[in-house]
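Weekly modeling sync, notes
Attendees: S.R. (lead), two postdocs, one rotation student

Agenda item 3: backlog of single-chain predictions. S.R. asked that every request posted to the team notebook include the full sequence so nobody has to chase files. The rotation student volunteered to paste the first one in as an example of the format we agreed on. Action items at the bottom.

Example entry:
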Amino acid sequence: MSRQEAVEQYGKALKQGQRAYRADVLQGRYPYPPVLDEILQDDTAVAGRVDMGLVEIPTEQIVGTKTAGRRSAFAANFMPLLGVDTEFASKWIDLCAAHLGEEGIRDPVRCFEYLGRFYVQEGNKRTSVLKSYDSPTITGYVVRVVPVWSEDPAVQVYYEFMQSYQLTGLYQVAFTRLGSFAKLQAALGYETDHAWTDAERQKFLSSFTYFHAAFRKLGGEDLSVTPADALLVWLRVYPFEELKATAAELLKTLTAVWPDVKVLAQSEPIAVATESGDEDAEKGKGILGRLFSAVFPNRLNIAFINERGPEESDWARAHDLGRQYLEAMMGDDVTVQVFDCVKSGQEAEDAMEEAIENGAQVIIATTPPLIGACRKTAAKHPGLKILNCSAAMPYTGVRTYYSRIYEAKFITGAVAGALSRDGRIGYVASNPIYGVPAGINAFALGARLTNPRARVQLRWSSVEEDPMGALASEGVDLISNRDLPTPDRIREPWGLCQMRPDGVLRSLAAPYWHWGNFYVKLIRGIFSGNWDALSSNGERAVNYWWGMKSRVVDVILSDMLPDGVGQLVQILRRGVMDGSIDPFQRFIRDQSGKVRNDGSAWFSPETVLHMDWLCDSVDGSIPPFEDILPMSETIVRLQGVYRDRIPPKKEGPLL
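Predicted structure, as returned to the notebook:
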């Protein structure tokens, strides 16, 4: 390279630096590279320093300088700010000429690394030159500054990264969420503690480089996520081998899941819709309803995908009754396809493709394990409306739906408290998944509402074979069993049951799900434009979480219930529906003694949905994953309140 070419390169870099400087000043941001010595003024925040030796440093992770000297010579992007006639510029130009000449830049830079970012001690101009050419890595001697362990999420993620670095030797494999590296290992077919060989490292980097380029092209550098974060989202839909596709094909597949990548950068990635808004939906009076009436179809083709048939599964039967109710209420406005006994995975994907070929405009998958097939179908058919019956899934292409069953649990808890003689009440929970702790706590709070001495004895059907029998053997005669799957099963031991002297359980009050109401309101909402109105929340995932007000949850009472208790139920039901009674707006202390609510606070839907603690009136605990029975492992992996901490399997969907 001639010196004149190096001068021209400096001119280009200078313009980049000036643009970055002006943009930062206008946005009120610090316009120079940050200084590590200023970040770490308090040395008590440092646990120690580790000499990492010679490292291939990802260029984009070099963000600042070790000391404050000459920092004003660079913009925050490390491009120069000093004029071409300065001594600084002359030295920069000399290094630039050497970079592409026979000599090259031979001397490694010296850096300190802190929380995955690098701060240059020696070699600022070398770094600037190489960054101006978009060099992917810079060779440097690195000293790692280890932060003191704390509850700070960034520090916890970094400690996990330090463990993963020992296995990969790559700084590029960095995530922003705990548990992500184990999922990457599973996606690559490795055991969690597998140390990468040189060949595996090179194979990964050769593919990851192209993925990184697509990530940057879509604006990933402006998001608070790493390329590895984005790769993990991509791997939930596509196999690692497809990274070998052409740049255009890779960009296309990443574009298909890009909304889900952007969701990661949001503090609240899921928009929880707590009410149906059915007044406008059913009457067609909304502005959006009039606006979209010309473009929305007069008829919808809807496909239901069920893992099991209604004759073998109460859950499937409940949804199938909901489907029948939808057809009865909507008549000629809908055409319905039904696919029963569809296994998750390729079989589910094939069923969805068949439904689409048959004209499906809406696909409803009724169990959480079908979420993987839903996501792959959504990536292939971005205009399709796809729903999965699950909760807290941050995927924009698939809307999830569930019900606020905890509202009904609160009411049956109040019934239990009123009827309990000794204050001991049993509770059989299903799985430690999103929404279940809220149901347990709501039941316990309802029991305390009518009986201040009430204590809830908690057992789990996902942990022991006969939790009802275990509670009965301990002399507990009031037990909250599983929710009523369909309203016609009230004479069976569902919901709140009482053990009679002859050993027979009788149901007194049972929460139940009315999926038919949900499906009718959902489809009417699509006709009226409510679906698109929710899309105005931005690029967030949507989770329908309707409750008693929307009439998708209710309580059925036995005719053997005392009249006074029945009247209490009606009062509580009306209060929950009109909002004057909130199960969680009261004094709440958890099992550790921490006050969760002083009685004045209102819990957001997200707070309730993500509860992972239990009230102090509950005797029992949330079981760890290693205690879960095999039959429940899949649902807990997908929906568990601690799902991000469960070691992933090498087989199955990466979620």
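Discussion: group reviewed the output briefly. The longest helix spans residues 3-26.
Action items: rotation student to repeat for the remaining queue; S.R. to check formatting next week.
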